[in-house]
Amino acid sequence: MWESVRTVRELIEKLGMKKEAGCSWLHVKSKIHTFVAGGSNEFRNSSEYKKVWKRLMEEAGYVPDTDVVLHDVSEETRAIWVCGHSERIATMFALINTGLGMPIRITKNLRVCLECHFWVKIVSKVAGRVIVLRDTNCFHHFKDGMCSCKDYW
Predict the structure, then answer these.
(1) Is the separation of the CB atoms in 84 and 44 below 8 Å?
(2) Which residues contact 119 (CB under 8 A, 6 or more apart)?
(3) Whole-model pTM above 0.90?
(4) If we measure between CA atoms, which residue out of 143, 134, 28, 35 comes closest to residue 89?
(5) Helix pair 86-97, 114-127: axis angle to 10 deg
(6) Do 134 and 107 contact (CB within 8 A), yes or no?
(7) What's the mean per-residue pLDDT of the chain?
(8) Three-state secondary structure of 24-81
(9) Inter-residue contact 124 to 35 (CB < 8 Å)
């Protein structure tokens, strides 16, 4: 399988095509904040981010499903990559920088992956927040661990 993936990636590069980077944005305190997949390293390494992340993940017993990462890399790298998707960074930013009970509204330039969809459901339940995530397909309204799309993929 990985040889086929490599062939397709090489063809895409040869044709000069580029994959659009995953990007999410939200409005907090009169400012638009933008997050790119794999970016925001300073924020992701902050003590506040790590504290909130750890609390959410321990409370939920969450372990990332790395099957959505379609690269031939180590399991550890896959977990880092999937946890660095832009909608996750945006959600964490909103949890830290908005008041308790305030709804979180995020817009994403690509379709949310299945694993991030699952993760946002968990966060909505554990954090007790309504999260609205607009991707290229629909508005996902997360509340109490459920999504308005009824997990339709």
Answers:
(1) yes
(2) 62, 64, 88
(3) no
(4) 35
(5) 10
(6) yes
(7) 87
(8) EEEEECCEEEEEECCCCHHHHCCHHHHHHHHHHHHHHCCCCCHHHCCCCCCHHHHHHH
(9) no
Q: How does DSSP classify residue 149?
A: T
Q: Pick the closest to residue 49 from 16, 86, 6, 93 (CA basis).
A: 93
Phi, then psi, of 48 in degrees rounded to 5: -65, -45
Q: Which two tokens stand for residue 27?
A: 């409005």
pLDDT tens for each residue of 66-124? 776 666 667 676 666 667 889 999 999 999 999 999 999 999 999 998 889 999 999 99
Which 3 state secondary structure label does DSSP give 113? coil
Instruction: State yes or no: pLDDT of 65 exceeds 90.
Output: no
CA-CA distance, 16 to 10, in Å (whole number)? 10
What is the Cα 78 distance to its own chain's centre?
A: 14
State the pLDDT at residue 19. 77
Residue 21 in contact with residue 110, Cβ under 8 Å? no
Measured CA to CA, the distance from residue 78 to residue 91 in angstroms comes to 20
* Neighbour tally for 58: CB within 10 Å: 10
